[in-house]
Design brief:
mainly beta; Membrane-bound Lytic Murein Transglycosylase D, Chain A; Thrombin, subunit H
């Protein structure tokens, strides 16, 4: 009995690498690559790998690098093989020999490290809340009027607001948007919060008086205020597959376009609650249309088709924001997102 158990265990262990997913190199991969300004980790991963989200697999076994997502312009990446498996190793810029980084602290500012994805495409989504819950709306302050009785105001103007907490002197203004609704269950996952500007309190009271410091558009009566809380959203994460299976849908697209393409931002109905985190790569499946059978009659649903890849860059409890990295065919609201198996 013990012998059979040991034999079974050895069989499972020997099969582990195949189960975990074999790393397949890009057939046109370079042997050596010098990182240049403007590169992203996704770009580099695609140069070396067929599947960019397997980047951690090729770095995991590399003892030279402790933080594989911190790569700088001028660094040299070169491919080598260890026990028949590919590894990428690092040579820091300037021709210095490869060294083990774990006992060292890099003095170069972290902001100079190359990002995972194009920053310009997601910059506006990185600092302020994009999704608020029902309780956030209940406790938010709101604009009631202005000293000059203007219906709309802008930067430099003063406004009156109610619901201002005297513990906070600076506020973000936002316009409550539509709710994010799960198309499968009808659950309200949160509400869009469209950032409109910042304001500082000049005089507390009910109503309080605030000065508009910066606005992205006219501020209207009824716009909401929440205490300013700038989040430090990291962009140095690295592409990787979720640890468990994910299945969701695209429920919104920024700018409201009907067809979604590369480098557009979408919202999906899965978040921290489902185990998502920044850096997770998901495959997008164009949902098969339901058509009428022209011969037999009745209806038939066509198969889902591979449409591309998106990378999650910001997560909330029940929704996440993702950037479309590859678009092989047009994507639409309602298309499926799944683990990239």
């Amino acid at each position: 009995m013990i012998r059979r158990v040991l034999a079974l265990l050895l069989t499972v262990l020997s099969a582990w690498p195949a189960w975990a997913g074999d790393v397949v190199l890009n057939p046109h991969h370079p042997e050596r690559y010098v990182v240049v300004p403007g590169d992203t980790l996704w770009d580099i991963a695609k140069r070396f790998l067929r599947d960019p989200w397997l980047w951690p697999e090729i770095w995991y076994v590399n003892p030279q690098i402790e933080n594989p997502h911190l790569i700088y312009p001028g660094d040299v990446l070169y491919l080598t093989w260890v026990n028949g498996k590919p590894q990428l190793r690092l040579q820091r810029g300037g021709g210095h020999p490869t060294v083990k980084l774990s006992p060292r602290v890099r003095v170069e500012p972290i902001r100079r490290a190359i990002p995972a994805i194009p920053i310009d495409a997601i910059r506006q989504f990185l600092t302020r809340p994009l999704v608020v819950g029902e309780h956030d709306l209940d406790r938010a302050g709101y604009i009631v009027d202005s000293p000059d009785e203007h219906l709309v105001t802008g930067a430099g103007d003063r406004v009156y607001a109610r619901g201002i907490d005297p513990r906070h002197g600076r506020y973000d203004l936002f316009e409550p948007g539509d709710p994010y609704v799960d198309p499968a269950t009808g659950e309200i996952l949160g509400y869009a919060a469209e950032y409109r500007g910042t304001a500082s309190v000049e005089r507390f009271g009910d109503p309080a008086t605030l000065r508009l410091e910066h606005t992205t558009r006219e501020i209207a009566i009824g716009d909401r205020l929440l205490p300013q809380n700038l989040e430090d959203v990291s962009v140095t994460f690295f592409p990787h597959a979720p640890a468990r299976k994910v299945a969701g849908q695209i429920i919104s697209v920024v700018d409201g376009v009907t067809q979604i393409g590369q480098y557009q931002v979408v919202v999906i109905n899965r978040g921290v609650r489902e185990g998502l985190e920044p850096g997770h790569v998901l495959r997008v499946l164009q949902a098969g249309r339901t058509i009428r059978d022209p011969v037999a009659g009745g209806k038939v649903t066509l198969p889902d088709e591979d449409a591309g890849l998106l990378l999650v860059f910001r997560t909330f409890d029940r929704v996440s924001f993702g950037l479309v990295m590859e678009a092989r065919r047009p994507m639409h609201l309602g298309d499926k997102v799944v683990s990239p198996e």
